[in-house]
Amino acid sequence: MTVISTQQSAYIYETNAVSKTSSTSQATSTNPTGEVDRLDKMQEKYKDVYTPIPETYSKADEDLQTQKIYEEYPSYMGLRELWDKSMSFYDAEPIKLGISPTKEQEEAQRTSSEKMDNWIIEQYGSREAFAEMQKGAMEIREKYPVNNWGKDSDIDNAKELARFRNAAVYEGLEKGKNIDEAKIYANNLLGSFMDTSYSEKNFIETLVKAGIADQDALNQEAVQTKVDLDNPHRSSMDLRKYGIEASWESYDIYESQASMLSEIEKKIGQYQFMMNNESLIKEEYSKLDASYQDSANNIGYKKWIEEKQMPLMKDGLNIFENYKIYDSIDIKG
Fold first, then answer.
1. How far are the Cα atoms of 86, 110, 126, 173, 176 from residue 89, in angstroms, in the given order?
2. What is the pLDDT of residues 45-96, one digit of tens each?
3. Rounded Cα distance, 184 and 199, in Å
4. Out of 124, 229, 241, 252, which residue is the most buried by the measure of CB atoms under 10 Å away?
5. Cα-flanking dihedrals φ and ψ of residue 118, to 5°?
6. How does 123-160 read in b/e, with b if 16+ C-beta sit within 10 Å?
7. How far is residue 45's CA from residue 39's CA, in Å, rounded to a whole number?
8. How far apart are CA 13 and CA 68, in angstroms?
């Protein structure tokens, strides 16, 4: 058996990663989506199971969806209307995020919840009937979809979000999942490989309007927590000598077809290196404080990679290889 040094191992890994990225870049520059007609094939194959989300917002789509919902459920109320109704029963100072509620606020919260429950029963007959209505309305939305991302002027990747979600649903169905399972699968992948920062902003805006959060919260940009690998008391292994920057689980999201393919393939290469060089990785997590050595992302990294990280990356790779998510295919420098 040939024994190689740490430096040689790192060099081999980095050389292979660069070579793989280079070949990927060349391939995607000529055929960025692999099987270019796969989306059409999937639409035809599953036309009776799933209606894809349109790439752009249309008021006509929204009007049709609304019409269909109210034809089936004349007393239907949307989430915004239900939120407003619930808040109308709350009679106290708003509860602020990060501040423990007073006894008066807690009591007002309990009272408003009870009043809302009673109102639902009076309005719809029972909680079960209300839940059934909500489920039915959701099914109608899925049958007559609207690109609501495109309706929000602050969301600049509405088209790409729709493309990815549709592709992920189809791939879930291809895996043998039923339609509900496929949608959950698609939503999980959407949050893993697409920019969904809009959701946090919209959530904060809702809280501000309800008086639950301060206006200043809207002015604070979401900051991704990064591990300081130079900190001697860090919680994650320092694998930079092997070309694995930041915490080994992290990766970047780009708005480019080739860049996403390159990033995912890079992570797969890193995970393979970690799985194949257990002694080197063990040496790195042995340098951590004892309390961090036993954490799942250190001593349990192999199971974490096998059961979560590698399957996630392969699912993402499958979508970006076979579907055109982004019109841009240039790798960002």
1. 6, 10, 19, 43, 45
2. 999 999 999 999 999 999 999 999 999 999 999 988 998 999 899 998 887 7
3. 17
4. 124
5. -65, -40
6. ebeeeeebeebbeebeebbbebbbbbbbeeeebebbbb
7. 10
8. 56
